Amino acid sequence: MLSFNGSGRRALASTTALVPVLLAASMLSGVSARTAVAQSATDLPSVTVDVEATDENNDSVQGSKTTLKEVDIAPKRLSTSDTAKLLKDVAGVSLYSAGGVSSLPVIRGLADDRIKTTIDGIPAASACPNHMNPTLSYADPNDVAKVEVFAGVTPVSAGGDSIAGSINVEKAKPIFAAMGEGLHTQGRLSTSYRSSSHSLSASGDVAVATENFSIGYNGSWTHAGDYHRGGTGEPVLTSEYMVKNHALTAAVEKNGHLLIVEGGRQSIPYEGFPNQRMDLTGNVSDFANGRYEGEFGWGTLKGRTYVRSTTHEMNFIDSLKGSGMPMNTESLEWGYSVNGEIPLSDRDTLRIGNEFNHFRLDDWWPSVGSGMMSPNDFWNIEDGQRDRLGTFAEWEAEWNPQLTTLVGVRNDMVWMNTGDVQGYNTGVTYATDVANFNALNRKKTDANFDWSALVRYEADTSSTYEAGVARKTRSPNLHERYTWSTGAMAMNMNNWFGDGNGYIGDINLKPEVAHTFSFSADWHDPARKAWAVKITPHFTLVKDYIDADRRTGQTATNTFIKLQLANHDARLYGLDVAGDMEAWDDSSYGRGVIKASVGFVEGVNTDTNADLYNIMPLHGRLALEHTLGGWSNAVEFEGVAAKTKVAYNRNEIETPAYGLMHIRTGYEWNNISLNAGVENVFDKLYHLPLGGADLADSGKNWGYNVFGEGRSYVIGASVKF
């Protein structure tokens, strides 16, 4: 039993098993799996058990999937404590800028809850009305071993309750001793420093293992001050943060079956948000989860179960943002997922799965003093409930060595409800809103149906083509449906867009339904080493897209305004291009590779003909990477066009074009690695295209965008033992 209390009034409780017992029983079976095999008796390394095949030339249909592995992730860890920023080079992905560890990924113009985001397959819904604690904020970059990004057309096995795509961050698998090694121990210590924010990070992990049992600890700590903008060197106010992560993991491997149990805590004492009217002044999240992976004679089976309890507080941590105004949320989330893969024949593979997610939320703002924010606590959402049950079936067929198809269907049932609310007082505005809301039947049930169909054709050893079409559905979140107050102050506090405006929900919002088509042409040399280029045009129509309409009387074009969430239809289309080319490969000078990517997307509300909010303008990257033995270097250029297509219904502000240069170098010798770099080499002054409105430096005045980070020297070191 796990419970928590809101404002000393009551407890929400739920019981969940941390380990699927029926799956754990299979540990006693003697079925073999594709596990790592120890080397010779004289060379006994540790073994990472992974029951999944790791074939780099997998011929299955992937859709618009990008996989980042250790070699891709390692160079980025030095420059960020924000796991979302590890994705910044992925074609089709951009980022809503937020707090120091809380950026929100965007896939082809669709962001936040429109993306299914998980850590080791487990979700973590944002408990904050400003989405200050999104899923990826709970993973430290040093713990990330692999990231899978599905953009646009996503197989139903990787989707559910999302319309943009899926992101799954995976931590490193447990380490086991090799056969005959006896007790195996290992560890790592890392530290880094970034000059712009005077950020200091430290992380480490340690593990003790036998051939069949492993236990490990990993932890991290980061402290950062306000980062400095380019050119002037002035600080971007309320961008400071501190975060601490701790996790303990135990694993058992027997007869090819793997069971992992993990528990831990994240604590964020404070995190500034330059584009919000509030800051995070406390976030404590405790979690536990269990995972099982194994193979049987009929196929493979995976199961997960999890629970997470979060206590979140907002207030002001910078005097320029005003006096105190506490805002609290508490949430409890638990669930499970089970899926199996069954080879029906040499040609056909069936995947089936079921998952359940239970989310409870209290969002209340304690009374302050004896003025307008008294004498009652303001209940934004009381006993909010959102449950989802998803089931899918997927069939993959390899018709011949060149042609593979993947089709799937999915159903997600979503049940939502919330309790009565109250305002700070019984004034006319609060009294009317409260009476109207509490009189409503607030129970909502959505029956959502998705399907996807993809085809992959490998014409020859140098060209591969994929096409896909999908219907994807997302139900509104609790704040979209149940925020109720029309008071100006309350509306300003419900804003997960970072635009400074005020929002109110709509209990009658319909689920978003997206129909997406994409096509990819992938050309490369036969060995996939000398050169490659991939071009992916994409097109999406969204029925009942959740946009925002101006409320009555909100006609101003030069100030923050009040908006009502509303369903509209929308259209998005664009093009992603990514490629690389070997520049040289010489035993004396090492290997040089040129990498490039370009992304373009446009989105429009087809009911109003207005541009959608926070669409990334044309952007691209060009990098030269060099390796020679243990030495690695890179020079990267980043360019972003002016953002001139903005959401005029929200008074969104345009941003100018800019270009940045970054350099990095590193050397690895035995178990020691040293890294250094310079971000924004020329100290360019620029605004973040998806940074939202500046509500700190501007004194909450309309017309200012958040500045990007200026020149920053970064240095880091790591030692393994």
The CATH architecture name reads: Beta Barrel
Q: How much helix is in the residues?
A: under 10%
Number of H- or I-type helical stretches: 5
SS strand fraction: over 45%
Number of DSSP-assigned strands: 35
Under the CATH scheme, which class?
Mainly Beta
Tell me the CATH superfamily: TonB-dependent receptor, beta-barrel domain
Major sheet characteristics: 22 strands, antiparallel, barrel
The chain-level structural class is: mainly beta
CATH fold-level name: Maltoporin, Chain A
Taking pLDDT < 50 over at least 5 consecutive residues as the criterion, the unreliable ranges are 1-58
How many domains would you count in the coordinates? Answer: 1
Mean pLDDT metric:
91
Signal peptide: 1-38
Pfam families: Plug (PF07715), TonB_dep_Rec_b-barrel (PF00593)
GO molecular function, one term: siderophore uptake transmembrane transporter activity
Subcellular location: Cell outer membrane
Explain what the structure shows.
With 721 residues, the chain is mainly β. The protein has one domain: Beta Barrel (Maltoporin, Chain A). It is built from five helices and 35 strands. The protein has helices at residues 21-24, 70-77, 428-438, 478-482, 488-493, and strands at residues 2-6, 10-14, 47-48, 64-68, 93-96, 104-107, 110-111, 115-119, 144-151, 165-171, 175-176, 184-194, 199-209, 213-224, 241-254, 257-271, 279-296, 299-315, 327-343, 348-365, 378-398, 403-417, 444-460, 463-474, 502-504, 512-524, 531-550, 562-586, 590-605, 610-611, 619-628, 631-640, 658-669, 672-679, 712-720. A hairpin with a 2-residue loop joins strand 6 and strand 7. The protein is globular.
